[in-house]
Write a sequence for this structure.
């Protein structure tokens, strides 16, 4: 039986230390997320969790070697050509992998300070692009290895304390979509933006353009792209998901009223940090960043009535 548009259920609860961020749907049919944000005084290392396609918790892995005296966390960003999870570890600025068969963690690259790796996407030629929450930089990791490259830099990606978040390469359009929570400008009124950055045939960045702008302190975070080209963008500041058409025009918001988070399920929308397609539904991680309610640390399942676009693959292009 089909579900109505915006019908919301709880997909899974996220165990301690909670505070999930991006939700990754793997080609193996399972779902992964980790603990990215840290409550004050928390003394637990971050963990990576695995669920079935229906939300049953299967396994977890503890991230080794974290300094528990400093803010720490891990984001499950994507997977590589070998099926390993690609993780972004913020306290040590690391891009890591996790082998699901062996449980082995490995360091792929370390970004220089003051970088805060936040989201990642595969681009042309098997390169991995990484957004930086701490400064206005998009990093590029070449497929063949080597040091991280400061591939693109702009004052428009410099946030007013809250910086660059979501990042998705669109192979058909040859561009990156980039979400920005706030912009550090006196006339910007703490608005966020969804930017478009062309990637040229030579692999170099083009000119940054604005697809959509939020209202004050709506804090755009991660987003998902439908096969139709529609974009579903999480607004962490207002506890909503906004639907944009392929041109960036705002179509609808859910829930309709900001801040309340009232979605008809047992857990309200509370600090949504992503919108990942899983069939015709969005999996949305609740961070609950303000009140830190552990009962709100869940992944929500939101029906949107259309399938997601194939994500960019580790070899360039789109996954099947």
């Amino acid at each position: 039986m089909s579900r109505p548009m915006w019908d919301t259920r709880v997909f899974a609860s996220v165990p301690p230390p909670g505070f999930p961020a991006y939700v990754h749907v793997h080609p193996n049919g399972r779902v992964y997320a980790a603990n990215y944000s840290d409550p004050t005084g928390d003394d637990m290392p971050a963990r990576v969790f695995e669920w079935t396609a229906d939300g049953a918790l299967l396994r977890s892995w503890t991230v080794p070697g974290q300094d528990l005296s400093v803010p720490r966390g891990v984001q499950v960003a994507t997977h590589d050509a070998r099926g390993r999870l690609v993780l972004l570890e913020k306290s040590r600025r690391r891009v890591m992998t996790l082998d699901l068969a062996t449980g082995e963690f490995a360091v792929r690259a370390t970004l220089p300070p003051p970088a805060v790796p936040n989201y990642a996407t595969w681009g042309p030629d098997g390169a991995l692009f990484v957004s930086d929450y701490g400064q206005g930089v998009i990093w590029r990791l070449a497929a063949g290895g080597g040091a991280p490259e400061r591939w693109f830099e702009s004052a428009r990606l410099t946030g007013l304390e809250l910086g660059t978040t979501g990042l998705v390469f669109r192979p058909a359009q040859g561009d990156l979509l980039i979400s920005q929570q706030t912009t550090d400008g006196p006339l910007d009124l703490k608005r966020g933006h969804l930017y478009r950055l062309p990637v040229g045939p030579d692999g170099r960045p083009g000119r940054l353009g604005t697809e959509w702008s939020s209202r004050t302190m709506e804090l755009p975070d991660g987003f998902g792209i439908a096969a139709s080209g529609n974009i579903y963008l999480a607004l962490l500041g207002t506890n909503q998901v906004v639907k944009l058409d392929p041109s960036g025009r705002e179509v609808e918001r859910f829930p309709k009223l900001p801040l309340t988070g009232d979605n008809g399920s047992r857990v309200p929308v509370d600090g949504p940090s992503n919108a990942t397609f899983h069939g015709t539904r969005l999996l949305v991680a609740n961070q609950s960043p303000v009140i830190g309610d552990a009962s709100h640390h869940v992944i929500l399942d939101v029906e949107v009535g259309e399938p997601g676009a194939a994500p960019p693959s580790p070899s360039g292009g789109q996954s099947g």
The chain has one domain: 8-303. The chain has a mean pLDDT of 94. The radius of gyration is 18 Å.
